[in-house]
């Protein structure tokens, strides 16, 4: 009953005229960000975060959360129409979405994807309402040792899941921890790595680093990859014969795909580091496995589009569970949201729902409303959003860079931070070039101060001994989780080596998916690549 009462109070907060306006604006901006190839939720949130400076925290988080899940669907439009994912979480949507468009069924494909997003968002938000209070109640009993181990487990999970190589992932995280040490040492009061600059006394702010790595870095990477030279093919979103809406058969064969994708996506999204990309790819594999006609996958099977689309949208709700209850961002996008919390003077964690119930439950309630707004925009405004995908990259790139510069400068009116942002843009390019993981760097930068503080508190309590980590059952359980995460890559590598068939000497047929058009080898490669920008 407490959950229902809190949700109704949050709904009253979310239904205020100002918050409804911000909700609509956030969904709209999120979809615009999502349809721009090269941008994604992380880059969009990082660029838009400075706009919330000085806003009411309740309205600001409603808008940014709307941008987050709006961008998830926005990437589907380009995935279906031009076979170009707007961001990595919609890679799986290209496997069957693009073949459907080539069959003249782009309209039904986009409408079914919109319905899947709505169902998944509603299911995910309902599960969030149930899971968040229970998780917060457990986390409220955590002391400094447990909090330190939670931070380490979350970061290690990210490194294991998103990195091709654990060493490169660890190096990326170490870089973030190094950046987090710049500024005043809270424990001793000494300056660390400021090089005499007064601008660095308060440390390196998260915003210029995130904007540089995800915004400018993406522009440079796209230029280097030649993505700006690719010729794009466009499709009318109206199906041949004037049929825009899906058929009854589309709905019947996809209804359980929505349910499976929604549940799978939520629980995968709860795992730090997994994110929407892993959820969507896992859902695609599940749908093909349970299908009675797996040979249709990769050739225009509606469940092959609906399942991944439901999973990647439900994962956004799942990612909110560790963020709100533990203060632990599970992806680069939720790391940007965490930075927003801190900028507004709020500390996400076990006490957030007790000390700021209007804020927390207003956010959850706004996600219910946002899904309805998203559905309406998706169904009736798809042709308008599709035109954004036609913007040439030589026009889009300067706009993105200018927005990055203005957004960074607007936070503290600091030229030094603009320089840091541009330097991080170059760093982000080289990280992508050499297989490092920018998301791990960003999350380590955000979690670094918390990790340092909780480790110091733990050692003060124990008198400098590390035995405190094995004195409580919760700490022992978390240490076991850390051990499992360390063993996971070895187990996966061994299993793949046993499963791997002999190499076929025949050359690749050149199909966009696997040799049979199924997209299986794309799934394998995508699972090994960084899922979140």
From TrEMBL:
This protein's record includes keyword DNA-binding: no
InterPro entries: DUF112_TM (IPR002823)
DUF112 domain location: 20-442
Transmembrane portions of the chain: 20-49, 61-82, 109-130, 142-161, 167-188, 200-224, 263-286, 323-347, 359-386, 393-412, 418-447, 476-495
Pfam families for this protein: TctA
Keywords of this entry: Membrane, Transmembrane, Transmembrane helix
Bias type Basic and acidic residues, positions: 518-533
Protein name per UniProt: Tripartite tricarboxylate transporter permease
Source organism of the structure: Nonomuraea cypriaca
């Amino acid at each position: 009953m407490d959950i229902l009462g809190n949700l109704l109070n949050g709904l009253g907060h979310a239904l205020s005229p100002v918050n409804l306006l911000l909700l609509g604006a956030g969904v709209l901006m999120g979809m615009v960000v999502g349809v721009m190839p090269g941008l994604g939720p992380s880059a969009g949130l990082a660029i838009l975060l400075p706009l919330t400076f000085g806003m009411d925290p309740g309205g600001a988080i409603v808008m940014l959360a709307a941008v987050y899940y709006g961008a998830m669907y926005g990437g589907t439009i380009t995935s279906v129409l031009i076979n170009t994912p707007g961001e990595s979480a919609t890679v799986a949507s290209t496997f069957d979405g693009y073949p459907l468009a080539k069959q003249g069924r782009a309209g039904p494909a986009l409408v079914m994807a919109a319905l899947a997003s709505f169902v998944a968002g509603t299911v995910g938000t309902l599960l969030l309402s149930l899971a968040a209070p229970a998780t917060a109640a457990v986390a409220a009993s955590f002391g400094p040792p447990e909090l330190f181990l939670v931070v380490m487990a979350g970061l290690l999970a990210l490194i294991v899941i998103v990195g091709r190589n654990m060493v490169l992932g660890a190096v990326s995280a170490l870089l973030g921890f190094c950046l987090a040490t710049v500024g005043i040492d809270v424990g001793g009061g000494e300056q660390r790595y400021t090089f005499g600059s007064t601008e660095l006394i308060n440390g390196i702010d998260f915003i210029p680093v995130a904007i540089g790595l995800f915004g400018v870095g993406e522009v440079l990477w796209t230029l280097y990859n030649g993505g700006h030279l690719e010729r794009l093919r466009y499709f009318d979103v109206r199906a041949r014969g004037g049929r825009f809406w899906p058929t009854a058969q589309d709905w019947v064969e996809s209804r359980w795909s929505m349910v499976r994708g929604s549940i799978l996506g939520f629980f995968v999204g709860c795992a730090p580091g997994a994110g929407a990309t892993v959820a969507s790819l896992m859902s695609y594999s599940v749908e093909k496995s349970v299908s009675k006609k797996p040979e249709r996958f990769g050739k225009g099977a509606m469940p092959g589009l609906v399942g991944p689309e439901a999973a990647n949208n439900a994962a956004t709700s799942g990612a909110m569970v560790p963020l709100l209850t533990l203060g632990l961002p599970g992806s680069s996008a939720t790391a940007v949201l965490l930075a927003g919390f801190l900028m507004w003077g709020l500390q996400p964690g076990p006490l957030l729902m007790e000390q700021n119930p209007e804020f927390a439950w207003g956010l959850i309630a706004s996600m219910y409303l946002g899904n309805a707004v998203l559905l309406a925009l998706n169904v009736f405004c798809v042709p308008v959003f599709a035109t954004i995908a036609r913007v040439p990259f030589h026009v889009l790139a300067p706009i993105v860079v200018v927005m990055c510069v203005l957004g960074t400068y607007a936070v503290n009116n600091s030229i030094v931070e603009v320089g840091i942002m541009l330097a991080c843009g170059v760093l982000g390019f080289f990280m992508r070039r050499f297989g490092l993981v920018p998301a791990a760097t960003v999350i380590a930068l955000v979690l670094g101060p918390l990790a340092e503080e909780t480790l110091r508190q733990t050692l003060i309590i124990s008198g400098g001994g590390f035995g405190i980590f094995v004195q409580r059952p919760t700490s022992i359980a978390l240490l076991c989780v850390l051990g499992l995460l360390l063993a996971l890559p070895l187990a996966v590598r061994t299993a793949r080596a046993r499963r791997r068939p002999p190499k076929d000497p025949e050359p690749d047929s050149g199909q966009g998916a696997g040799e049979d058009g199924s997209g299986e080898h794309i799934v394998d490669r995508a699972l090994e690549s960084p899922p979140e920008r």
